[in-house]
Write a structure and sequence with these properties.
By secondary structure, this protein is mostly beta strands. It folds into two domains: 166 residues, CalX-beta domain (Immunoglobulin-like), CATH 2.60.40.2030; 114 residues, Lipocalin (Beta Barrel), CATH 2.40.128. 0% of the residues lie in helices and 53% in strands. The strands form three sheets. Strands 12, 13, 14, 15, 16, 17, 18, 19, 20 and 21 form a ten-stranded antiparallel beta sheet that branches. The two termini are 28 Å apart.
């Protein structure tokens, strides 16, 4: 099922008192006469979780930002441009990938006040729909001005996925395939399992680094992870030194049948290592 939704990114129009005056910046970005584009702020997936059966609504949003073609630094990065001085309409579609997004209240328009550079497309999920996994994709398609495109060359983030799941720790107990990205960006694959912890909303990841030891995480109501003190998450002993897992952040999601992502650092009395990440996908 594919739904075409029209989002309005509106800017207050500047009134001109003289009919003979030609604004050189008309249809342009602020004082910059270059062509511009719109895109999402970041690549990837937006995850949102709700407590199963909770009598509340869940709101998730994704920012749409405005860029300028010629504001590109020497390292290839881009900077946000000055805001346009007239209204701009951005069109986008919503496409279901897994489950149905028909229950989602989509506003259909979003307003960017003059002087701002972005606005959020916001989706509200009622409690009655927070009972299963839903994945849908938002795709920017066009704008109302010919000199403002969707994406530009290598700088093109035209899509954003949403994964919305009802939260239940029991759903994440099982066997997993692990993709481990180390601090030096090398990777390794192995398997592990997740069991329920003795504390409420806690899970034990058995085991990072194939160490055989569990790493405890706590699952928050929104699906994000929190961690005990590193001293409670013993990892392994090597060269007479004890190492522990210092949790940084992470999340659980119904994505791919069950996904757990953890960012952490290996710590010891000598200090902490670089940031590492494990993505566990349920088998």
């Amino acid at each position: 099922m594919k739904k075409f939704i029209y989002g309005l990114l509106g800017f207050a129009a500047i009134s001109i008192t003289s009919c003979d005056y030609h604004d050189p910046n008309s249809d342009k970005f602020g004082n910059d006469s270059s062509t511009g584009w719109v895109q999402f702020e970041n690549e990837g997936v937006t995850y949102a979780s709700a407590v199963q059966g909770a009598n509340s609504t869940l709101t998730a949003s994704v920012p749409v930002v405005i860029k300028s073609v010629d504001i590109i630094d020497l390292s290839g990065g881009t900077f946000a441009n000055n805001p346009v001085n007239e209204g701009l309409t951005v069109y986008y579609t919503v496409e279901d990938i897994d489950g149905s997004s028909s229950f989602i209240n989509i506003p259909g328009s979003v307003y960017i006040p003059k002087g701002e550079l972005s606005a959020n497309i916001t989706f509200t999920v009622p409690a009655t729909a927070q009972i299963s996994c839903t994945q849908f994709r938002v795709t920017l398609t066009s704008t109302s001005k010919s000199n403002v495109t969707v994406g530009f060359e290598d700088h093109d983030i035209a899509t954003q996925d949403f994964v919305i799941s009802a939260f239940s720790t029991d759903a994440y107990v099982g066997n997993y395939s692990v993709l481990h990205t180390f601090a030096d960006n090398t990777q390794a694959s192995y398997t592990c399992n997740i069991t329920a912890g003795s504390e409420e909303n806690s899970l034990l990841i058995n085991s990072l680094y194939n160490s055989g030891n569990p790493t405890k995480v706590y699952v928050n109501a929104d699906g994000t992870l929190s961690f005990p003190d590193a001293s409670e998450n013993y990892l392994l002993t090597q060269g007479g030194v004890d190492y522990f897992v210092g949790g940084v952040d992470g999340f659980v999601s119904c994505f791919n049948g069950g996904t757990v992502s953890v960012d952490f650092r290996v710590v010891s009395d000598a200090g902490s290592g670089g940031l590492e990440n494990v993505v566990l996908t349920k088998n």
